[in-house]
Each structure stands twice: as C-alpha cells, then as structure tokens.
Amino acid sequence: MLIYDEKHECASQEDMRSLQLSKLKKIVEYAYENVPFYKKKYDAAGVKPGDIKTLKDIERLPFVEKSDLRDNYPYGLAAVDIEDTVRIHASSGTSGKPTVVFYTRDDLETWTECMARIVTMGGVTKKDVVQVSFGYGLFTGALGLHQGLERVGATVVPASSGNTERQVMLMHDLGVTGMVCTPSYALHISEVMAASGYKKEDFKLKWALLGSEASTLEMHKEISRRLGVFPTDNYGLSEIIGPGVSGECLEKNGMHVNEDHFYPEIVDSETLEAVKDGEWGELVLTALDKFGMPMIRYRTKDITRLNREPCKCGRTLVRMDRIKGRSDDMLKIRGVNVFPSQIESVLMEMPEIGGQYHITVKRENFSDVLEVAVEVADANLLSDYGNLQKLVQKVKHNLRVVLQIDAVVKLVEPLSLKRFEGKAQRVTDLRNKKEF
Amino acid sequence: MLVNQLAVFLENRKGRLKELAGVLAKEKIDLLTLSIADTEDFGIVRFITTDNDRALSALRNAGFTVTESDLIGIEIGDVPGALSNVLKVLADGDIGIEYLYSYARTEEQKAIILFKVKEVGKALDVLSRADVRVLDRTLE
Questions:
Q1: Which residue from A20, A302, A363, B10 lies 20 to 30 Å from B136 (Cα-Cα)?
Q2: Closest residue on chain A to B5 (Cα)
Q3: Residues of chain B neighbouring A381 (CB-CB closer than 8 A)
Q4: How far apart are CA B2 and CA B24, in angstroms?
C-alpha cells in the first residue's frame, strides 16, 4: 500500500508533537502580528503568543467561530495583501453573505500536498483516470481534489457536477477508474448507469473518493456493491483549507488527519473543555501553516472522536471517526451548507407568507431534497391560482438566490404549522433513516 | 348587481373540507354553491352561502384564510345550446373568463352560471345587450 509522504504520515509521536509545537508557536505569533482580529481577541483574553510553550497551551487561546468570518467579511481575516493572495474560495455562511477564504501560493502548495496524501490513501495512483464530479467554482471540493490528483500524476477528468447521463458516458468511454463525488451522487450515478442499460462490469471503476457530506458505512457498502469500487471518505472545510484535512485509508477505520498541518482538538460542545482521547466531542481545528487567512482553534461544530493508535496501513497520523452529527443546526444538502437562518431571512422578507415555516430534508432517489413549508398569509392571493403558483415560484427563486440550491416550496394553511413557545424545532431531517 | 363569493385556501389534507363545512354548520349557514379546484398540494374552495358576511367572520375566527370576490351570475335555460349562446356573446365581446362553475335549478328548468372576469363592466354591458338575465347578490 502506497504512502505519499512517509516522513510526515508515519512520523513518531514525538517528532510529530515537536513539529506541531514549533509550527503552532510560529502561526500564533504570525496571526497576532498580521491580523488585528487575533491581536484584539488575544489581548482581550490576556494571552500572548509567547505564552504558547507546550501544545496543551493552545487551550489558553480563544476559539474562532463561523460568525467571526461573517463579522469580518470580506477581507477582515486576511493576513496578507491582495498581491500575495492567489486564490479565493467561498462557502455559504449563516446569513446571506458567503464565508470567504484566502490562499497564498504557499497555502495552495500545502493544500495540494495534503490532497495528494488523501487521494493516495484512497488508492489512487498515477495510473488512474479520475473523474471529479463536484461542482467547480467557489466551492473548495472540486479544485482541492483536482490539485491533489494532478500532483500524484493521475489523469483528471474535470466533469464538474450535473448532467449525470454525460458523466456516465465519460466514465464509460474514457475508462475512468476513480470517481470523486458525494456519496449520494455516487448512488445516483449507479442508478443512471442501470437506467442506461449498463452493468458495473462495463466500467473500469476501482476507487470512489467520497466527501462533502457525511455518510454511513451502509451507504459505502451499497456504493461498493453497485459500482464495484472501493469507497473512502475524506473530510475538510473551507475555513481550514477545504478537503484534505483528513481521509480514510484502505483500512477504512477512521480518517487520518494531516496533523502536521491541521492540529485537532476535541472539546465538549457545552463546556468547551478538552475531552479525553477517544471520547466524542466537537472537533476544533488549527491550521498550523496557513498564511493567507490564519485559522486558530476554529470550532468546526462537527462531532467526532480521535484515535491515536497506529493504523495497520503504517500511518501514525491520528484518526478521526466518521462525523456523527453537528453541534449547531447547519444542514448539508447535496454538499451545500444550508443554515435554517438563511431560509428564515428569505421568508421574513416576503409579506405574502406568514412568519412560520418548517424545513424538511429527505432523500429521494439518493439525492437530498429540501422542502420548505410556508403559510399563505395574504388572502388576496386566493382570487386565482396563478397568484398562488407565482408565490411558490417567487419563494423558490428567492431561496435559490441565497442558498444556491433548489427547494421544494409547499404552501400550507395559516396557523397549520406548529407554534413553539420555547426553542423552535423547525427542521426535520429524515435522511438518517435507514434506506437500504 | 354582482354575486359575492368566498374563497378559502385549503391544503390537500384529509378532513379539511369537513372542518370548513363544520364551521358553517355550527353557524347555521347554508351553502348555496360550492366549487373546488385543486392542485397536488393545495386547493381553493369557492362558495356562496346564505350569509356570506357571517360566514366570512366565522371562518376567519376559525383560522382559515378567506377572501371575497365578485362574480357575475346569470340564469339561462337548462337546455342544450344555452351555455354555448352565452359564451358566444362573451367571446364576441372579447371577454375572457378566469373561471366558471354552474348549478341547475331543476324545478325551474334553469341553470345558474357563475363566472369571474377581469372586465366586469364590459361583460355586464354585452350581457344586457344580449338580453341575458343577470342575477343579483341573492342569486335572484
């Protein structure tokens, strides 16, 4: 089994700790000196870069949250001038504005190296032809994988997302051996293959690098059964770098964190205190050498646990478990981050509908469906059907502008949605129900 | 001159129409006409009652979204060709119909046609010139 960067991926615990500490000291000082946000935050907390003497001292630093990115939109967290910034990516934020991130040339190099490790963990070599079926654009998924695949010398087919019939045709005609997509899209591709009269033997597929949404082992088994591929999960988030933070090796027993670049902590999401190794909690990540936009102690809100046992694959990199859930209300729908608050802000601007709504997320044909139920408040719309249809279209359009994905809009009667006195439960996620 | 109609938004849910009728029954209000058009998810129920004002407030109090609108009501003979004649009058007058429904007064061998148009004045004008009997608010 191949290892891309043996020196780092198989380092001794001792070497890893000392590398992490020296990088941590440097990045904290760098952030403090180059980003006023960090200086202010650390001064307020009474902590100085010089206070970092051991890795454990990281716990003295305050956390960074997604709202900090929003509050400092767009350039507030950048540490370098535009002339040293070579790329901007973005993901959706908690309100209308996206979360933007910046990369220097060195950051892109780090990212590419990390991705090269991940695709190698997933079985890909330069002999493979890999189709990237993530949407190319502001989203980090497609370009991140693309860079890593090119780095290992694989042949990349940048198919981007959508037009599944064409994806299948390319996979077939080009003899594609690896696929990069979300787990649900992999299943959808398998259905379109079947519908087009193909059998899995008609393809040369071997590997599936799955990411951008949480998945279950059952789903992986089904993907493997239908497509004849070996599926692996990988994990990342744009705030930290994009995909490339961690990935499964062929042992499929946790995702190896590229911990020489991304330092993981697990904290209790209530107390925010560190939990014991092996216990479940919220993942907090520090990018140890990202200079365009330093990210120190970022609360991912993803729930996982760490396993420091060396892996059978030979890597010593700490492994994180499959994401079990989130400590906030963010939804991942077809790979896109969706916050109920974004939906709410769209609906609140429309007087034709009431202030109540309910969001249902389900999976139909292995694709996520977002359904938004709203109450018809304006009786004048009842004079004819056209008005109601237009209202549905308008709500859909306005949601699309903010969310970047299509929602099914359902009009319901006034007062029919449940009212809440305490914390409102406005989201029903039916996707984790067993589907096989 | 025009007939007052109520319209209620209903989701396609079992028992919802029954609840609407129940509100009217409790108020002892009689339905004169009832028409339902539906899509997959929701419908608009349109109706005329013996007391639209009371029906409107009773339904609103019960949480329904209700609106009023004015329809043109005409009485024609319950015989073949009668509707066709009236529609020709309207078409010749270049008047489009948004929706229409009807019911028969069997004892009198008459049919009542209720419909919604945008250009009410023009429609009434062409109907009266063609000697079509236009009903008043009480459907008489």
A1: B10
A2: A383
A3: 9, 67
A4: 22
